[in-house]
Design a protein that fits this description.
This protein has 140 residues and is α+β, with helices and mostly antiparallel strands. Helices cover 23% and strands 16% of the residues.
């Protein structure tokens, strides 16, 4: 798009990280942000992103690893409040299911034996439920 003189659309995760777009933020450091997925597989489904735009995990700088992985681990500890069973998932590239091309890990609490990844419609997160989950997961 840029070669045609058009500006590419802004990255929604960059907009969220810059606090220019709304999100149900659960956790934030200088370099990372975690917020609720708007179309969660399960209650408490989080996205953990670096604030600096990178498309891929391999684009993250080595000096960014400790904060990013440390944030991911902290969010997993917090998700333990909902369930000791969870998935940590990275979809890297379009063929792997990546929809937003800004690095992000999903932390998805699991409840019971149901597989949340089977093809099924996902309901949009309700504001009241999001606020309850944020209140629980925002506490250190």
């Amino acid at each position: 798009m840029e070669e045609q003189g058009l500006t590419p659309p802004p990255c929604v995760f960059c907009e969220i990280a810059a606090h220019r777009a709304p999100a149900y933020t659960v956790y934030e450091t200088e370099r990372t942000l975690a917020f609720l997925d708007l179309f969660p597989y399960t209650r408490g489904h989080l996205l953990v992103v670096p604030k600096r735009h990178v498309d891929r995990l391999t684009d993250l700088r080595p000096e960014e690893y400790p904060d990013y992985v440390g944030s991911l681990a902290e969010l997993c500890r917090r998700v333990d409040r909902f369930s000791r069973h969870y998935n940590v998932a990275l979809n890297q590239g379009e063929m792997a299911g990546q929809v937003i091309f800004h690095l992000h890990f999903h932390v998805i609490p699991r409840y019971g034996a149901h597989n949340p990844f089977l093809a099924q419609p996902r309901a949009r997160l309700a504001d009241a439920e999001a606020r309850r989950v944020v209140a629980e997961l925002s506490k250190p």
